[in-house]
Amino acid sequence: MDNGTNILSSVGNTPLIELCRVVPDGCAQILVKLESHNPTGSMKDRMAHAVVAGAVSRGAIKPNGTIIEYTGGSTGTSLAFVCAAMGYQLSIVTSDAFSREKRDHMRALGANVLELPSEGGRTTKKLIQQMISKAEELSNSPDSFFADQFNNPDAASGYRSMAEEIWDQSGRKVDAFVQSVGTAQCITGVAGALRKLNSGIHIAAVEPSESPVLSGGAPGPHKIEGVGPGFIPPIWTDRLADEIFQISTSEAKDMARRLAIEEALFAGTSTGANILAAIRVATRLSPGHTVATIACDSGLKYLSTDLYTFA
Predict the structure, then answer these.
(1) Among residues 10, 40, 121, 208, which is most buried (max CB within 10 A)?
(2) Which CATH number is associated with domain 44-146?
(3) Of the listed 157, 270, 298, 301, which one is catalytic?
(4) Of these residues, 33, 44, 102, 223, which one is catalytic?
(5) Is the Cβ–Cβ distance between 209 and 201 less than 8 Å?
(6) What is the pTM assigned to this prediction?
(7) Does 196 participate in catalysis according to the annotation?
(8) DSSP string of 14-56, one letter each residue
(9) Residues of CATH 3.40.50.1100 domain(s) within the chain?
């Protein structure tokens, strides 16, 4: 088969849309990258493809080898997609803290999934560290490759294409970029590429207010899936962002619901946090400026959760 028609070629080139109704009057334009248009409905498809392709090119994955990873859900689903497309086995360590849809999606794509119990369905530092430890243990098996998303050298490179797309789709004018932080691979890849295109761009990071470790606070439990692991990511540096916003789980959920109703933008909780922070940046800038952020994934991944459960 011509590689150009392989399903992996459908990763990226997602739409960039302008918010119309949730943005206050008199502030900058807010543009949102719709990463739900990737094959699994998540921006993590970009990273997963880069991680597996990089490991294959280095010979780190054997032809009949198994990839091992810990994940809050979207990374595991994206790796399952890439592994199914490329013919590799995948074993995932995750938790019931993350949506049923994500765990079922991994299994549907052929992954072997191990679920660790959480504390009341919340993301905590202890849980993430337990998941990492179990994945490390599994990776000691012969012919295994540990993807290790927090430390993988190829992960950030998967997001550079997103920066280039944002720049071109915006008319080559982006004054600020906002993104929530989990592994910090996305903000590293996108911010690095955007700064080469506009050295004066303002970069804002987002973290849960319940676990404000990037801001120097203590870790705590929260329910914004995929971000705020409760510790500073290994690749994080203070130079990555010009400022850090703290958004609570309830604020992020409320904005995600508003986005669905007012903008027809159906996304998850981390997207709600991104939009709230982007609005705060945009209110400081006058019309004529542009703030870009990311709709990290699809709301279809959260239909079983209290984000979209209606009485």
Answers:
(1) 208
(2) 3.40.50.1100
(3) 270
(4) 44
(5) no
(6) 0.94
(7) no
(8) --EEE--SSSPTTS-EEEEEEGGGSTTSBTHHHHHHHHHHHHH
(9) 3-37+157-302, 44-146
Please, are residues 245 and 266 in contact by the beta-carbon 8 Å criterion?
no
Our answer to whether residue 173 is catalytic in this structure is no
What is the pLDDT tens value at each position of the chain, 311 positions in all?
444 579 999 999 999 999 999 999 999 999 999 999 999 999 999 999 999 999 999 999 988 899 999 998 899 999 999 999 999 999 999 999 899 999 999 999 999 999 999 989 899 999 999 999 999 999 999 999 999 999 999 999 999 999 999 999 999 999 999 999 999 999 999 999 999 999 999 999 999 999 999 999 999 999 999 999 999 999 999 999 999 999 999 999 999 999 999 999 999 999 999 999 999 999 999 899 999 999 999 999 999 999 998 76
Indicate the class that CATH gives domain 3-37+157-302.
Answer: alpha beta
